[in-house]
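=== Structure Prediction Worksheet ===
Name of assembly: unnamed complex
Input type: mixed (protein and possibly other molecules)
Chain count: two
Listed entries:
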Amino acid sequence: MTKRILVIDDEPGIRKSFTVALEDTGYLVETAESGEIGIEKLKKQKYDLIYLDLNMPCLNGVETLRELRAIDRDVPIYIVTAFHAAFTDQLKRAAEEKIDFELLRKPLGSDQIVTITRGIFKWDDANLTGEYHDTT
Amino acid sequence: MGYGIIRILLIEDSVSVVNHIQEILTKANSHDFEAESSYVDRISVGLEYLAKNEVDVILLDLMLPDSQGTDSLMKICAQVPEVPIVVLTGLRDEILAMEIIKKGAQDYLVKGQIDGDLLKRSILYAIEHKRVEGELKKYREHLEELIKERTDELNTVNRQLKKEVSGRKNAEESLENSFSELGEVYKRLAQSHSQLIQAEKMGAVGTLAAGIAHELNNPLMAILNFSSYCLKKTDKKDRRYSFLKDIELETGRCIEIVSYLLTFSHSEQDGEEAFQSEDLARIIQRVVSILSYRIEKEKVSLSTHIPEDNPQIWVKVGSIQQVILNLLTNALDAVEESQKKEIKIEAHPDGDCVNLTVANTGRGIAPEIMTKIYDPFFTTKPVGKGTGLGLTISRNIINAHGGDITCESKPGLGTTFKITLPIKNGQEETL
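=== Predicted Assembly ===
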């Protein structure tokens, strides 16, 4: 089954970076330019992986993360950020509430994006076929 | 107006005159004029009488056996100045008349020309004149008193004013003192203000750098991925391929610079940098390449001596890079105005440690400020050039590595910073 990836970032350059980096991998990449649109998409469609920006106008990354988790508590969510010092406290609180997420540092090159994505799915597949794994 | 019975003393030695006057007085007595008179024939007796009796008016002959002329008048005046005097003269002498009036008599009468009305009028005039004179005198005295009072008041006010003026002078003086004290305080304030401004500038630079770095990260990520994409889609034989490769490489450099900026600004609180094994020569080479433009432009001769077999060290690469960048920047600043512009970087293994020295032929550090060079915000560089934090941060970083930083300087000859870093330390297992 084709893996479906959602990229939520207000910067078109970042969305496009993920799209072109993952173009030949066979994964299906969809994008959302805001947290709100990303949430709407997740309500309608199941995704296997979400890349999420932190610093966005309106709904920020942490707020979006909470909403996404309320819809799907299992989908791996990777927060991609250059700068999350301003969100450290919010992220810490989310982590304390056992809201699951991972962090990736911007900027990411194509090779890194492909490697990380493949790594996540490999691990995820192993998880599906193998024993239960606590992600916290 | 009534005077009651007018008491008259007649000083006259001529009995006929006395009789004549007494007769006239008796005749003149009426409902509005009543007089009783006594008479003496000597001035001495008259003075005695006046000492014992009160009289309302004196009729005085100027030709007495024991006193003549104005002398008689003056004697009487001296004893009873309040009593009016009418002088009796034998002659009509205007000059004498003027004189006796001046000496204190109220009027004068020529003997032989005296009749009832004249005497009566003269006596009443003398009394009234004296009374008015007395009142005038009283009034004058009162005026004088008033003037004295006013003068006293004025003096008092004047004294108060003087006191106030001197008080004000004191106040002015103390004001001046406070003013100069204020000046001192202001000076100190200005000093700490400029220190604060520097600190703030540093903060502002950091914030600005972090802001720029952050803003650049997204477009850099896009450029990096887009150039990678184009590379992937371009045939290696295509001439554009090498240019795309260059874009990718240059973008990588930009990303590196941005990450330096974030390190320097201390805004990158996320993710402590991890220790890793690194070749010191490579770190130095990276720093030198960052500063190569300045080194060439300022015609500084830089030499690096690092033995080939220099061991790998266990460090936070970004931090150590920052330390070397700080030391090399300081060295460049130091030789800026020197004749001899030489900077030498050397590294030697020494047991468990590696010694790194950065030496310059610059102006040197004055002994009296040697103890301050690591103090936060201490700088000798012009405002806007030095933050006063470079050596502070450097020492913190070296200490965090379990190392040591020392400085030797000869004013006018140059400065050498020596860093000792452990080749391996106990934090190895944390990775």
